[in-house]
Every structure is written in structure tokens, then in C-alpha cells.
Amino acid sequence: MQWDANNRDAMTDAEQRALIQAADPNVRQVISDAALILDLRGRQLSVLRSTYPGWDIDYESDGSGRMWWTAELRRMPTLEMATAGVMRSVRQEDAIALLSTLAWQSALLHTTRPGIRASHIPPTDDTA
């Protein structure tokens, strides 16, 4: 069997059917694999979103077409949070890395004391 892109008649109907039948299982496998991958991403995204509701989590591509798992904190970090290492947004190449980063960020969030700011601490009188 010879394929000639410039001459569609170069392949007989029987040859075309044979080619389609040979490719059919491969095409179905590729489609099945793609569906599983997309389903896996969807499940990972669902788990991340339900585990970390304080973050807007997504899977997106950058300008170069590279895919990233991203998370943005839903509230503005306080000075204390930023000092403790809490980041407003994070991105990772895969769901597992983002999960690890969000676990660390959650630990940092839980170690900061919300509502306490240095500016609200009364000054001490060192002259006495």
C-alpha cells in the first residue's frame, strides 16, 4: 500500500478501509487515554479545591503554552502572614507539587495570629 498525498485515488477503497480498520483500535486507545488523563486532572482539581477552599485553584497555560497548576489566596495576606512566608499566589508544574505547596502554605497560615498587628501593640515606656 502506498500513500500519495497529492493523488487521493492512489489508494483503493479496500486499502482505505484496511487502513482505517488498522488505525481504529489505536485511535480508540488514544481517545481513551486522553479521557482518562482529563478525568484525572478534573478529579485532582476537585480534590485540591475541596481540600483548600481558601484558595482559587486552576489548571492553565502560560503565554508559551506550558501548563501550570495555580492557586491564589482568596484574601489579601497581612504583613504578619507575608513575614511568615505566606504567598498570595503559587504555581507548580503538577497537582502533587501544588498540593505540597498548599500544605506548607496552610501550615504557615495557621501559625500566624490573625488580627494582631505590630502597630496595635502599645508602646512600652523604657524611661521608667
Care to describe what's here?
It is built from three helices and three strands; from the N terminus they run αββαβα. The chain is α+β, with helices and mostly antiparallel strands and 128 residues long. A hairpin with a 5-residue loop joins β1 and β2. The protein starts with 12 loop residues before the first helix and ends in a 17-residue tail after the last helix.
Keyphrases for this structure?
alpha+beta; three-stranded antiparallel β-sheet; 3 helices
Poorly predicted spans = 116-128
What percent of the residues sit in helical stretches (DSSP H or I)? 40-55%
Q: What is the tally of beta strands?
A: 3
Number of helices: 3
**Terminal-residue CA separation:** 101 Å
N-to-C order of helices and strands: HEEHEH
Derived from helix and strand composition plus strand pairing, the structural class reads: alpha+beta
Strand content: 5-15%
The gyration radius over C-alpha positions equals 27 Å
What is the average of the pLDDT values? 79
How is the biggest beta sheet arranged? Answer: 3 strands, antiparallel
Task: Record the strand order, biggest sheet.
Answer: 1-2-3
The outline comes out as: rod-shaped
